[in-house]
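[Solved] Which block belongs to which protein?

Original post:
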Amino acid sequence: MYSLRRAIAGTAVVVLLLTACSRGGGEQPDASSTAASSPLVTSSSTTAAVRPTPVPFFTGKVSLTDLPDCAKVRCWLPTQFTTKLVNDVSVSRQGIWPMEGDAVRVLCQTVGGSYQNPAGQTVSNWYGILVPTDKLEPGADKQATKVTGGYLGYVGISWLTGGEGKLAPDCKTLVK
C-alpha cells in the first residue's frame, strides 16, 4: 500500500509541474547555475523531454588532455574562420591562446564540417567563441568576422567543457 501511495504522490507532482510549466508558471532556473547534464534529458518516470534554457553566452574551458600529445604538454586549440578544420590558419594567436585549461566565452553554436572527437566519433557540432582583439592572429582581422569585444572563431564542441546542459544561440543569429 505504501508504494502505491508513493507512486500516486509522485505522479501528482509530475502532473502539477507539467501543468505549471505549460501555463508559463514557475521560474526558469538561471542557466549559469544549472547542473551539468546532457543537452536533452528525459526522466525515467516520464517521457517528457527537458531542453536546456537558451543562454546568450557562457564560459567554457579548453579541454585537450584526451588527445595523446596534449596529455604530455599544454596544447593550443586553433580557432577556425569557418566551421571546418583548416590546418595552419587560425583566428587566434598560434601557440598562445586559447591553450589547455583557458577559459573562453562561447557566443553561439552551429553545425558544420565533420571532425573526429577524442573518442574517434564523427562530430559536426561547433561553438563560436569570442577571440579578443589582443588574442587575434596578426592579419586575421581581414578575414575574421567582427563581433562585439573582438572576433568570432569556431572550435569543435568536443574540445570545450562547460556547455553541458546549456544551449547557446544559433551562430546564424549572431552572424548576418
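(Second protein starts here: sequence line, then its C-alpha cells.)
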Amino acid sequence: MYKIIFSLAASILVLFTHAKAQEFNSSVPKKIVIVLSTKDYATAKNFAIEVSKKLGKSLELNGLKPNRELGLTFSKEDCESYGYPCYIPRGEGNAENSDYISVEYSNGYEGFAKGYYIVVAGIGDPNSAFLTRVLANAKRYYKDAYAKQTKVWFGCMH
C-alpha cells in the first residue's frame, strides 16, 4: 500500500515540476517599440544615440558589434558559454519589460522582416499601459515610431 501511495505521490510531483518548467521555458507575447529600421548598422547606432538624447533615455548597446553571420554579436569573451559569434535579442530569457534605447537585429524576432538593424525604444506586454506610454513618448519626436508584436523566449538560455 505504501509503495502505491509513494509511487502516486512521486508521479504527481514529477508532473507538477514538468508543468512548472514548461511555464518557465516558453515564448511569451511582447510588443517592441521601433523608431528606425535600416540595413546599415552605423546609421542605426547614430540614430540610437540621437533618440537616447531626445527621449532622455539610457542607451544600452551592450557591446554588440555587427557580424556577417548573425547580424550582431557580443564579444568573444561574452560568447564563451554559447560559442562565438552569439547574439541574444533584447528580452530573450527573462521577457522583461524595458524602457531604454538599443540597436537589435530583426532576425532575432519572430515575425520581423529579416536583415534589419532596428532602433528599439522599449519592449512590453501587448496592450499594457507601460507600452502605451513608451510608444506615445517615442511618437512625440518620431511620428513613424510603431509597436510590432512578436514572441520572446522566457526561460533558460543554455
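Accepted answer:
You had them paired correctly. Confirming on the second one: The CA atoms of residues 93 and 154 lie 5 Å apart.
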